[in-house]
Write a structure and sequence with these properties.
There is one protein chain. By secondary structure, the chain is of the alpha/beta class. It has a single domain, classed as TIM Barrel. Helix content is about 45%, strand content about 15%. The protein has ten helices and eight strands.
Amino acid sequence: MRGVYLVTDRRYVTHRSIEAVVDEAARAGLACVQLREKDLSTRDFIEMARRLKALLLPLGVPLVINDRIDVAMAVGADGVHIGQSDMPYALARKLLGPRAIIGLSVETWQDVEEAEALDVDYLGISPVHATPTKTDTKGPWGLAGVAAIRAYSRHTLVAIGGINADNAAAVVQAGAHCLAVVSAICGAADPFQATAALNRTLLQETATLKGTVQATAALNPSGSGALKTGKL
């Protein structure tokens, strides 16, 4: 998974529907949409998930459900995102099958170490920066934390928490493969342009990092790991 990852939050959507925001952002290019609506009833959650699934399917954008595996199964979502206090990964995988996208939040270094033994599709580094959209987590990882996880982990890294157009480049430089945002898109006056700007930043910084690694590898042919292979 590479790109911009939208996490929904109706609190930031004031002048349009959440479906309209998701549609505009998806047309600008999204790697994934996570439906995260903790205050909806199960029935309303399912209905919203169905609407988003129908909207995203023609655009080829996967829909994952936050926490609620029952909702994901009910609507045929592409996967789920689970936290450390949610259903264990092994059971979620058993219920959803081998093709489902399953992401896992990591809030401590122990979480990162234990995740190495799991075949999750990505790790959610949560949060990178302090943010009002994620108040039930441990302290922020910061950019140094993102870099440390990138150096250690074999998994794709999705960074979330306080990410916006002003700091997105630094988060990619630190090692994130994917930028997960909430208010930066849900609260934007123009979700299409906000998403497009984040995509440009991610692509530019990824290309710069790849060029740097390849150049370093050429100068150090006996190096190891990413420097040896030029792999990002």
